[in-house]
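Go through this chain for my students:
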Amino acid sequence: MPAPPRITKLCRVRSQHRIVVVLLALFAGCGSVSLVPATSDGGSPTPTIEDTASGGTVLMRGDAATRTPATGDAATTIEIAVSATDAAACEGCGACGVQCGGGTFCSGGACVCPGNETSCDGTCVSLTSDVQNCGTCGNACGTGRVCSAGTCKTTCGTGLVSCAGACVDTLSDSASCGACGKACAGGTTCVAGQCACPTGQVSCGGTCVSLASDPASCGACGKACPSGQMCSFGTCVLTCAAERTACGGACVDTTTDDQNCGACGAACTGGTSCAKGKCACPVDEQLCSGVCVATASDAKHCGACGTICAAGQVCSAGTCETTCPAATMSCTSGCVDVTRSPTNCGGCGVTCTGGATCVGGSCACPAGAVPCGGRCVDEQTDAANCGACGAACAGAATCMGGMCVGPKCDNQSILCLGVCVLFMKDAANCGACGVTCPAGKKCDNGSCKTDNSGPGGGDSDSGG
């Protein structure tokens, strides 16, 4: 039986018999509650909560639910906020049992293709380069021809390489990174022709992790925090710092964390990133059907979400036109200025990566940033590259003017590896940095003492 869905806010429903408070999929005072599959109009399984005490049922679709009491009184609509993107919550996307396939992912409770791909016969493909679906689904290029920018040609366009007939940018294509068929894995993406982890993460055993917050690799790959402790700024601690939130043993910043944006488990999808605790699309893009798109040039969302240009038309400056204006080029995404388009820089399909922007048809770091490991960084403010490429600040220290500045601790804490810890009761830093209390002992007033908190017990000094 699937696990109950995650309820993200308190909800109430009023019936003839009682006020039912729904929290964490439990109906207080209504007896046991279970989640069972049900069908509606012959469709796919629908999440159903059965109120076994009164015999009523609750059918859930999306974020709304209707309770039909067994006594026959009028059905009452209640609001139940279920995380639509959290497939693990009820083992499905949008509804229990719905699994995304064919290259799609779950965004906003629906299975969608990535922003640069289209579903053709149930599989996500790139119409810009797929030799079997070039420009439109089912349009196959003949023998000896390639698909370049959505058009069948004899050779690939500027900056693109032919990989089995598909013209791709091997500097940014994660399926052919640096060379045809060299796919990025373990959470890496293609940056300047190399598979790299997201900013702030490193590869541990082939998987990208954050050494600053991962409890299984805290500060170093494989360095796991003891049970009951969390990872904060690369150090195992009992409690997270004031500016961090505990999410599954990791102390994270929910204002910027793409996997925990605004709340634990709230992941940003569809090309969005976390800013100030909310998932948002890049500048000049808009969220349409769960995916960020450039409505100024996207022929499927021209000027607004869902506005589709007719066959033979292109999208230019948010308007469907018959031809692209001067100084722009017709790419699969629409009419673009290849001198400054970050996804069509110098030619259709050539993408700038690592924070670089398109200037005069070439990818370059913006003002104030310098190249570092294939990425653009600001050495004056970047804590991972403070003053120089690769010069990382320790712990919670920040980078100001190219110099690492440590946090100021209160009189109850001391600074350990850049993190303020409560040395009087922190079992990982008891009395001093790095002094760890052994199993069966606790930190009391800066000393490791035997934990005899049971009946008749008492604490004793550890002798160290």
Confidence is low (pLDDT under 50) at residues 1-89, 455-459.
